C-alpha cells in the first residue's frame, strides 16, 4: 500500500464507517481499523487541550458506557471525552492543568461528583446546574401521574392517553389551537392530571423570572404540590438543584439565574460526540 493511499484511508476513516472505506478502497476492514487507530493515537498525542472561561462537564452514553464530556461553553465545542465519568478519571484529567484561574463559571448536571470536583478544583467559581437536566424532571413527574392514572382506566382510554401525551409534554406557548382543545377536554375531568400539568408549567416558568422572584418561586413550589400527587413529584422535590434540594445546593440554584447569559448557549454533547 502506498503512503498516499494510507493517508487517504486515515482521513476517510474519520468521516465514514470502516466497512464503507474498506469497500471503497478495496482493502480489508482490519487494515482500515489499524490505520484509523494509528491516526487517532497520533492526533491524541499532539492534542493539548486548554481550559476555557466557561467550562461544561456533562456525559454521554456510548456503547452502553457513560463517558464524561468536557466542553467549552463559550465556543460551543467539545474539549475532551474521558473514558468514564467517575471522580478519579476526571481528577486525573484536571490535574494536567496547574493554572485553572481562567475559568469563570462551570455548568454541570446533577451528578454529585461533578459538584465535588468543581468545589475542589475551582473554589469560588460559580457552579451552575444545566437548566435542561432540572426542568425535564418536571415532565418526568407529570408522566408518572399520567401513567398511574392510566392504569386505573379501560384499555381504550389508556390508548387515548398515550396518543395525547405529546400535547401535555409541550410547553403552553407551543400548543396549537387543536392541541389546546385536546388538552382542555382531557384535563377537564382529571383533577390530578390537571394539577400535574399546571405544576410542570409553573416549574418551567420559574426560569423566566428575575433572580429574586425565581428564588421565592423555588421555595414556594414544594408547598404547592397537592398531597395526592406528591409521591409522583418526589424525585423533583428531593433533587439537588430543584426546590427542595440540599442546603449546599442553594447557591447553585441562585447562580442558575446569575450565569444564564454566559451559559445559555450550552448544548447537550450527544449530537456531536456520537457522530
TrEMBL record:
InterPro entries this protein is in?
A: Transpos_ISL3, Transposase_DDE
At the top level, the lineage of the source is Bacteria
Q: Where is each Transposase IS204/IS1001/IS1096/IS1165 DDE domain found?
A: 55-225
Name by which UniProt lists this protein: Transposase IS204/IS1001/IS1096/IS1165 DDE domain-containing protein
- Recorded source organism is Ralstonia pickettii OR214
Amino acid at each position: 500500500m502506498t503512503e498516499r493511499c494510507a493517508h487517504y484511508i486515515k482521513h476517510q476513516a474519520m468521516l465514514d464507517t470502516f466497512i464503507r472505506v474498506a469497500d471503497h478502497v478495496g482493502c480489508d476492514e482490519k487494515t482500515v481499523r489499524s490505520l484509523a487507530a494509528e491516526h487517532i493515537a497520533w492526533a491524541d498525542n499532539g492534542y493539548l487541550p486548554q481550559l476555557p472561561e466557561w467550562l461544561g462537564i456533562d456525559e454521554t452514553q456510548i456503547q452502553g458506557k457513560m463517558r464524561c464530556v468536557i466542553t467549552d461553553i463559550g465556543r460551543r465545542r467539545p474539549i475532551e471525552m474521558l473514558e468514564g465519568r467517575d471522580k478519579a478519571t476526571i481528577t486525573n484529567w484536571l490535574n494536567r492543568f496547574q493554572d485553572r484561574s481562567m475559568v469563570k463559571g462551570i455548568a454541570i448536571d446533577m451528578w454529585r461528583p461533578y459538584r465535588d470536583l468543581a468545589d475542589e478544583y475551582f473554589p469560588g467559581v460559580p457552579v451552575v446546574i444545566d437548566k435542561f437536566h432540572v426542568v425535564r424532571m418536571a415532565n418526568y413527574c407529570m408522566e408518572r401521574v399520567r401513567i398511574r392514572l392510566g392504569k386505573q382506566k379501560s384499555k381504550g382510554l389508556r390508548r387515548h392517553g398515550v396518543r395525547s401525551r405529546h400535547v401535555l409534554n409541550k410547553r403552553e406557548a407551543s400548543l396549537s389551537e387543536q392541541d389546546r382543545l385536546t388538552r382542555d377536554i382531557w384535563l377537564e375531568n382529571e383533577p390530578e392530571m390537571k394539577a400535574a400539568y399546571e405544576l410542570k408549567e409553573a416549574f418551567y416558568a420559574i426560569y423566566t423570572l428575575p433572580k429574586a422572584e425565581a428564588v421565592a418561586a423555588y421555595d414556594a413550589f414544594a408547598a404547592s404540590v397537592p398531597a395526592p400527587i406528591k409521591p409522583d413529584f418526589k424525585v423533583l422535590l428531593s433533587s439537588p438543584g430543584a426546590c427542595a434540594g440540599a442546603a449546599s445546593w442553594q447557591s447553585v440554584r441562585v447562580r442558575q439565574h446569575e450565569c444564564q447569559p454566559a451559559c445559555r448557549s450550552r448544548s447537550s454533547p450527544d449530537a456531536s460526540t456520537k457522530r
